[in-house]
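Quick one:
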Amino acid sequence: MSHANCHGCSLCLLSCPMWQQHRDVQYSPQGLFKALQHNASHHDITPALFSCLLCGACDTLCPENIDITETIKTLRKETFSHGIEAELKQKITSLFTQQASSSKVKIEKHTIILPGKALRSNPMRLTKIQSLLSSEIDTSLSLDDGDDIALALEAGIEIPEHRLQRFLEPLQRAKRLYVSNGHLLKSLRQWLPASELLALGHGLSQLSTLTKKLNKNDLYLIEARSFHHDHQQKITHYDQLRHQQGCQMNLDLQRNAIPTAAGGLNAIKPMLDSKEQAHWILSGRNIQRIIVECAEDEVVMSQVSDLPILHIADLMEA
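Output:
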């Protein structure tokens, strides 16, 4: 199904951060697709096109089963081909040449963690996570997080074959990979079909040594992108966790995870206000702690709340 199949039911507006902030239908998948159906140009739709977080909430709601996030990536790619947003494209493509040659080193462990830049900036926490996930089998940290590749995927920019191969080669033997970035996780499942791919936050949320310390006064922030990619499977897991521990979660009435807009493309080209997103998540809640799966969410929440904010791995010492 393509955007031509959108019949304007408006279901995608219900969980859309663009719609929540702009309250203008053109800032929604429905608005984008209807504009294109009426011959809007790429220039016309560019502001809305790059406001989308690709959080994936709309994908779970669309009755026509349109792959909305992939459609928006394709539209972004077409926009670049028209010479629009050339500066953004140059900024991302320049990152491909900045990766260290150490990424070519083979990793012999069967379980590998791709933590991402934000989490890697806290070595003590990362060591803790590695220890937690090594309870059954030794794990290793990837030497290349693929942050530039994740940005390119989100922006709809073609990844040079040599860069992609350099990133994938050390991961080929892995039986299991824990990945912090939801955009990267989705593509790695296509590139490495023989490996078991898990979202890092989701993997940690399955450890009872951590989750038993959640309580009814906690707000637990699910990482939205990977959650929506595996929505049917993960909503069951998180609902069970919520019922068992009594904690609140960043789920809306449609059972979708509200994203903070932190990190990713929105960090280098801010189109949505992450603080406003955080206020939306916190609105009307009576809580004493905030627990996050994503290190970027921790930064945003600390800007709008004086409550203690913990990464899920930090529950070990809480």
